[in-house]
Specification:
Elements: H1 2-58, H2 69-89, H3 94-108
Helix pairs in contact: 1-2, 1-3
Length: about 110
């Protein structure tokens, strides 16, 4: 009788362990998906901020006294691109990111 009880207890323990492992895996999958969605939203925000900075740059008057020419244009574009990435990482557009993540979640389900 003790052997039967021990076997039942062991079987229940193994089943519970399998359930726990599956739950952990499902949680990990959800976390990975959440991270991917956040990264996508952050990348989109960086592009949006970059376009906004580019449009703002066009409104500035040209400096006629000191002109770096083509090299300055390339460098300034790269600089604004890095500014936009930094701004997106710091959460400058956190409300936009949150709305994008929510919309992407709706599309997935």
């Amino acid at each position: 009788m003790d052997q039967i009880n021990n076997y039942q207890a062991l079987t229940q323990f193994n089943l519970q362990k399998q359930i726990d492992l599956k739950a952990e895996k499902a949680t990990a999958d959800v976390d990975k998906n959440e991270q991917k969605l956040n990264k996508i939203a952050e990348d989109f925000s960086a592009i949006f901020i970059g376009k906004m900075l580019s449009a703002m740059k066009k409104t500035l008057p040209d400096k006629k006294m000191i002109d770096g020419g083509f090299a300055e244009d390339i460098f300034s574009d790269m600089m604004y691109q890095e500014y936009s990435k930094m701004a997106a990482k710091q959460g400058l557009m956190s409300n936009l990111n949150q709305a994008l993540v929510e919309q992407l979640k709706k599309q997935q389900s």
